[in-house]
Amino acid sequence: MSRVLSGIQPSGDLHLGNYLGAIRNWAADQDIHDAFYCIVDLHALTLDIDPAELRSRTFETALDLLAAGLDPQRCTLFVQSHVTEHVQLSWLLECTATMGELSRMTQFKDKSAGKDSVRVGLFTYPVLQCADILLYDAERVPVGDDQRQHVELAREVAIRFNYRFGDTLVVPEASIPKVGARVMDLQHPERKMSKSISSPLGTLLMLEEPEEIVRKVKKAVTDTDGEVRYDPEAKPGVSNLLELLAVATGGTPDQVAGSYERYGDLKSATADALVEMLRPIRERRDVLAADPGAVFRLLALGAAKARETASATYGRAAEAIGLLTPE
Ligand code: TYM
After folding, report:
1. Could you read off the pLDDT of 78-125 as tens digits, one per residue?
2. Any ligand 1 atom below 6 A from CB of 182
3. 171 secondary structure, DSSP code
């Protein structure tokens, strides 16, 4: 079985972009791959976040992922800071990546734009992400489209490390879904749905109440030409709805477009399909939340399992780069 790894920030309520771009595919991958999934709390430190809130969000994210179908019997689910090798390997990789490479990261440019003071961690964040991936010898990294550039960096860094120090790190590849890789904001369909941009009406949460799903989808921005057709360039709003309906029902956006003539009908069908898709997640979430101790135990087991692989890879990399092995 090939190895996959992916990660998610504990930065609040997960939205439909997170679910369709990533988590849903993680759940599907756990039966066919040796899968590692990581809640990247160290990455969250690059933004302003209250310590108590970070702790609770990390735990809540674990609950959300379990509710969304990750099963610790079939995958390794853990919290990044519980495995210290992430930071250790990250330093070796900081000494491998270049300033030029990190300066080109579009997420860094977006998040630092217009700020007087930018934390070093925000700049080096993609290297920590390289460490997350490379520590687990991951061949595939299932992510949404916005993470493509970061995974490409992990490839480059692994290739360079291997070139300088001999074959040590597995060179990974991004795995991006055909539909759902870029879920757009319902109110501003020209930009992606995002936790950091506040657009409550444009963002559908994974645990959204059914009535809210219906309300937000009904209010989704479309266009004035009235034709139900999949054309993301010319018709971003309608195309976004078609993509959502397609992933929720298992078709392609072009196929589902053929079944509707009016925007109102498309919206009703999309809302109903999303309510049904998300219902079991909300129900499971309630059950899991009743036993927090069980979640802590699962995370401890996950970290122990992750550490086995991470420490072996870190040991290999430390030796290859010339660090003296302790007795
Ligand atoms: P994060 O926490 O922003 O997002 C988690 C996952 O959700 C996907 N995603 C989307 N997919 C489709 N449409 C959207 N609108 C949308 N918004 C978010 C993201 O592509 C991602 O797959 N740096 C990463 C976390 C990370 C990571 C890793 C990922 C840290 N280490 C190692 C993979 C491997 C991030 O901030 O994702």
Report:
1. 999 999 999 999 999 999 999 999 999 999 999 999 998 999 999 999
2. yes
3. P
Q: Which two tokens stand for residue 219?
A: 């209010």
CA 154 to chain centre: 16
pLDDT reported for residue 54: 97
Active site residue 192: yes
At 327, the pLDDT band (50, 70, 90 cuts) reads confident
CA distance to 40, 95, 278, 289, per residue, from 67 (Å): 18, 39, 10, 9
Residue 208 CB partners (closer than 8 Å, separation 6+): 216, 278
141 lines ligand 1 (CB under 6 A): yes
Residues 226-250 as b or e (16 or more Cβ within 10 Å = b): eebebebeebbbbbbbbbbbbbbbe
Q: Which residues pair with 75 in a beta bridge?
A: 35
